[in-house]
Amino acid sequence: MSKRTAVKHADSTRREVQPDQGGHFGPFGGCFAPETLMRPLEELEEAYFQARSDPEFQAQFDFLLHCYAGRPTPLYHAARLTQHLGGADIYLKREDMLHTGAHKINNCLGQALLARRMGKRRLIAETGAGQHGVATATVAALLGFECVIYMGEEDMSRQRLNVFRMRLLGAKVTPVTAGSRTLKEAISETMRDWVTNVDSTYYILGSVLGPHPYPLIVREFQRMIGVEAREQILKAEGRLPDLLIACVGGGSNAIGLFHEFLEDESVRMVGVEAGGRGTELGEHAARFHGGTPGVLHGTYSYILQDEMGQISTTHSISAGLDYAAVGPEHAMLFDTHRAEYTRRTDAEALDACHLLSRLEGVIPALETSHAIAEVIRRAPGAEGQLFIVNLSGRGDKDMEILQRELKL
Amino acid sequence: MSIRIAECWKRLQSRNDKALIAFLMAGDPDLAATVKIVVALAEAGADIVELGIPFSEPIADGPVIQRSGERALRAGAYLPAILDVVREIRRESQVPLILFSYLNPVLRYGFERFAADAVSSGADGALITDLSVEEAGPYVEQMRRSGLDTVFLAAPTSTDERLKRVVSLSTGFVYAISRMGVTGAREQLSSAVAPLVQRLRRFTSLPIAAGFGISRPEHFAELAPIVDGVIVGSAFVHCLEQHPENPAPHVADFAKWLRQGFATEPDPSGTGTAATQSNR
Q1: Integer distance in angstroms from the first to the last C-alpha of chain A?
Q2: Percent of chain A at pLDDT above 70?
Q3: What is the mean pLDDT of residues A143-159?
Q4: Is A146 annotated as catalytic?
């Protein structure tokens, strides 16, 4: 909860916002963990910084991103959506075209390489929608790790296809039956496994959450989204975008897109949280609308909690946004007004999913559909503006829910 | 060091004895029962009692304490009500009381208010499981101002550098985590505890208590030569779960049974199979 944030000069023209040594983004972030995990977290930080300055590690990572995951992803001008909404020019950053169908694979490849470097032989991860679990199971198969995925029972039933995919890839999927049986309980259970098996095991956290150094590591393994998008839009349009839009669960796809643009003052950015089915506590997962600062799963950030500091249950139609805390860097961007955070409901997300599918032949994940819903509100009347939306994942995993809800 | 905890160690030292430190979840099975259980425990030979404040995301706890926390939350065991329990206990017992919590309920309550209300209710200190020494500054400052002890955890994985920071912020005693993993009773002691205690002794003259996985008199016998106190949590909480109707006498009997271990020669095999109690 320190107030320091270092601003590092990477070169003479571009500055990067970096957390301080303790992993604080302004007052947020930090490292709130039981002492048993503190040394393992220090070791992770040391291994990460060594890897980051090792050209061979970077080369391996870049090679797998390119040849295995399918980077760079296209920046696609959504002409029919643009025409339909009648305003801003809309570009989609097609992370859905990556292997396994979402941006999650970027981070998993980076962290699995780190795990191999650290001599670990077992990967564990939590998953909500199953995308991070599938990505972790995939890299475990690719690099020959044993793999255990923790998933809330509720999420297992609404994302059955992904559960099967993980098992097909050789991972063990362990149901978590505590509390609301969703992502927050899955994270708690993964932390318990990690503290018990820390010698052999690497915990691949899936979002810009958790104790330092995870929010930093995950951001750095997702930032190529924004690096590519910035080059691509400059090439396509000869100028920077006016607005970036991304959905925010923990916030890794949003940080991945936003980070490279933080010093471009003309570029506005909006993160879209899950508005769920109502504004009461427990009906949504909009941490910036009804949340207050607190500590959950190792980091100080905005969280949904009751007046006694107990963590609230959350609701979203999209399992990947259904979580009570948000990444600490987002909390800083919110407090400093560098980014804006809004929320879209379950119903708006479903409509947006349907619209994008029909107009562009692109079926977005329900998480991503929240970002599309925001575009639908903002694009009309915004003539001459350029929007980039992070199309963070594809909707294949959501077919059962879409079938039930859309009744086509 | 707070007066009650300092006097406790002095008394134990004078009779060359070790501390039995019992952990219970406040509000399991209900708040009124907690008062009775703590009083009975103190009479049965618990030297210090740790009162757990339940939290919805107990990341460091195994299934026994997780379930206990869920029962306690259903019984309305929030921090203000638990401070009332402490006041009630103080009418009947002067046993040293440590509030044992995850950070967020305390953070939400406010460090300043927590320290002030904890001391006025009669608590002697606190331990915040997920508050690392790196982040503990503002909390320790408020606790010192109220004269409350701050117990911190030391782990087998802690480097010497970390242990120095842990002992520098600890008062009352240091909690040596005897094994990696979550809370929960185990059959055998971990071999990690003795080296950790030895390393801690190099950096502090504070009393050292070992906890995590300890549940039998044989464990007590084995630990007594090297530590100043032994902490038992899940095994007591298991008692609460087995006897929800009238837990106090069962918990007290269990404390007496455990305490016998201090008077026993350690089993050289270290496997702890000499004595058994089927109903714990």
Answers
A1: 50
A2: 96
A3: 94
A4: no
Q: What is the model's pTM?
A: 0.94
Q: Cβ separation of A32 and B166 shorter than 8 Å?
A: no
Catalytic residue set of B: 50, 61
Residue pair A226/A257 in contact (Cβ under 8 Å)? The answer is: yes
Compute the average pLDDT of residues B232-252: 95
Q: Is the peptide bond before B80 cis (omega within 30 degrees of 0)?
A: no
Q: In this predicted model, what pLDDT tens digit does every residue of A360-376 receive, in sequence order?
A: 999 999 999 999 999 99
**Sheet strands side by side (includes A146-152):** A172-176, A146-152, A122-127, A201-203
Nearest CA in chain B to A193: B181
> From CA A166, how far away is CA B96, in angstroms rounded?
50
The pLDDT score that the predictor gives to residue A11 is: 41
Alpha-carbon distance A32 to nearest alpha carbon in chain B (angstroms):
5
| Residue in the block written with tokens 């995590």 | B212
Indicate which residue of A93, A104, A120, A184 is catalytic.
Answer: A104
Q: What is the mean pLDDT of chain B?
A: 93
Its ipTM equals: 0.93
Q: What is the pLDDT of residue A360?
A: 98
- Mean pLDDT over A305-321 rounds to 95
Q: Are A40 and A54 in contact (CB under 8 A)?
A: no
Q: CA-CA distance, A329 to A41, in Å (whole number)?
A: 19
The pLDDT tens digits for B61-78 are 999 999 999 999 999 999
Give the separation between CA B240 and CA B244, rounded to whole angstroms. Answer: 6
CB pairs under 8 A between A and B: 120
Residues in Cβ contact with A270 at an 8 Å cutoff, skipping those fewer than 6 apart: A243, A244, A245, A246, A339, A340, A341, A342, A374, A378
Of A38, A192, A296, the CB nearest to B162: A38
Active site (annotated) includes residue A3: no
Task: Give the per-residue pLDDT at A97.
Answer: 98
How far away is chain B from the Cα of A308, in angstroms, using its nearest Cα? 6
* pLDDT tens readout for residues A233-254: 999 999 999 999 999 999 999 9
Rounded to the nearest angstrom, the gap between the alpha carbon of residue A287 and the centroid of all alpha carbons in its chain is 15
Task: Pick the residue of A3, A21, A31, A32 with the most B CBs within 10 A to test the interface with B by mutation.
Answer: A32
Chain B residues inside the 8 Å CB shell of A34: 59-60, 129-130, 153, 155
Q: Which domains does chain B have, with CATH numbers?
A: 3-278 (3.20.20.70)
Judge whether A285 and A272 are in contact, CB under 8 Å.
no
CB nearest to A39's CB, from B105, B135, B158: B158
The answer, for A198 touching chain B at a CB cutoff of 8 Å, is yes
Residues 82-121 of B with CB under 8 A from A: 103-109
The per-residue DSSP string of A329-397 comes to: HHHHHHHTTSSEEEEEEHHHHHHHHHHHHHHHS--B-HHHHHHHHHHHHHSBT-TT-EEEEE--BBGGG
Q: What is the pLDDT of residues B92-116, one digit of tens each?
A: 999 999 999 999 999 999 999 999 9
In angstroms and rounded to an integer, the radius of gyration of the C-alpha atoms of chain B is 17
Nearest CA in chain B to A188: B59
